[in-house]
Specification:
Blueprint (H helix, E strand, L loop, with lengths): L1 H20 L2 E8 L2 H6 L4 H5 L3 E3 L3 E15 L2 E15 L4 E7 L3 E7 L2 E6 L19 E2 L9 E5 L2 E6 L7 E9 L19
Antiparallel strand pairs: 1-11, 2-5, 2-11, 3-4, 3-10, 5-6, 6-7, 7-8, 9-10
Amino acid sequence: MNGIVHLLGAVLLAPVLLAACAGQEFYEHLPFTEGVVQDYDLDASSRRRLQYFVSDDIHLVRVRGDGRRGVADGRLFDRSRQEIEEIVVTGGTPGIVLASGLDWMAVSFERGGYLYFTSRPQNYGLDVSTRPIEGRYYLYAPDWNGRSGTIMYDNQQYQAVDESWRSFLLVDRSAVSETRGARAILPGRTLDTSRR
């Protein structure tokens, strides 16, 4: 009976020992940088096969309006009408690359539209302590002024507002770590005194 219990115990422990030898896999969001491009030797085709994510919220605003001024009923009048269009890309939204160059990528978060991201240094109109980290692919605007920048989206001009300038691209990286080990318990040696 004791032999059966030991055998059963050995059979139940076998999967535990095998699981201990298996590899571990983890995922992480990694900033997409020039270093990543070089480390993974990413050409234009490779960039299009990656899934991208935006790090922070992008808030685009477009104001359209018209107005009339004049005289009516013995008074001056002003009539104005404004339409405000907003586009928000929330942090974590996935996107794909449509085109890329040496230090830029056009990333689409919906059909028909895309935003440019660049690793080229931009003048954000910010003090040194709040400037972006060099090498990351940040949202591109040619005229950042510390508060906003002009963005072309779907052939329309918008202002990127709030802290849209902080937005950069992320990619997922999976890493598999497999560890194998061997253990030996040495029996030791004793001095052979019979030969003396």
